[in-house]
Amino acid sequence: MLTMVQLWVIGTYAQKPPVTLVEQGSFTVGGSIKSSPGTFDPITHGAFNPSNQSSEGQTLHGDHATVFYQIPDSAKKLPLVFWHGYGQSMRTWQTTPDGREGFQTLFLRRNFPIYLIDQPRRGLSGRSTEPTTISAATDDQLWFGIFRLGTGSTFYPDVQFSDDPEALNQFFRQITPDTGPLNINLNIEAVSTLFDKIGPGVLVTHSHSGGQGWLTALKNGNIKGIASYEPGSNFVFPEGEVPETIPYVGGALSARSVPMTEFKRLTEIPIVIYYGDYIPNEPVAHPGQEQWRAALQMAKLWTATVNKHGGDATLVHLPEKGLKGNTHFPMSDLNNEKVAVLLAEWLKEKGLDKK
């Protein structure tokens, strides 16, 4: 017998036709092997006993990224590679918290091959070569504010998030910790290795992976375009053109400097950035809004710099497009299909959706 939650999820798909796939699967990219000196003895060391276990002569395969992919029938030439943000996994792009289709399926329906990433030391890529301590602190309300659903446990007026308690329950449960120290260079290397494996494609980032996406594009010419949802850090500027740090309540946002010869790579591909609602124009007392005020301000400076050097960068503030009430997760909001249409139109405009 189906539970109420199962019926609730299944019901959202009842009116849509099936998606035909010609291939799907998963694999890992990147990573390293950690080795311990000595000789492994299958008799002495072969019993699994955590209280008396030796690492002598043994190895650990870790620090890789995990990739799930689906190739639809009549697939378009360039796949979309989806990279999650901080504290998240590939679930960001899958079923929405309220049980509707996420970007994974919405773009399969548009015949794009899709690749979903769990970056190293996160989610399905949890095998780390370095230890860490995972906190069990109670912090749901902190993320509720940072992700701009509202304040405390009170939703913003007209927010594009379901008021069904089960949707919020699902949303909180998709947060996942790092299983090792966060290492940006490790993440960049793994995603670059993915593009080496699959060839040309379009990178779609969210939040913390936004800055890592720029850095990956500097490294790998197979990235033919970038769509970034609410990038919050690691904006890359040419040497001598780095803007001043932008202070905000609870912190400050600084940009990174790279040689002009490297920065020019970002002017050679189309880039689009999207930000949602509830981002103030002036400083406010709410830290959850403040950091996004700084990010949006930095993104304006960044796109202007890319375009000044001959690039093609577009900044879209969704409320200005008539899409109001979006959170930090536009791809999961109630109007995510309208958000997806904007991306699909951009891909078509830039010639990135050809078969």
Automatic annotation (TrEMBL):
InterPro entries: AB_hydrolase_fold, Carboxylesterase_BioH. It comes from the Bacteria. Gene3D superfamilies: alpha/beta hydrolase. This is Alpha/beta hydrolase family protein.
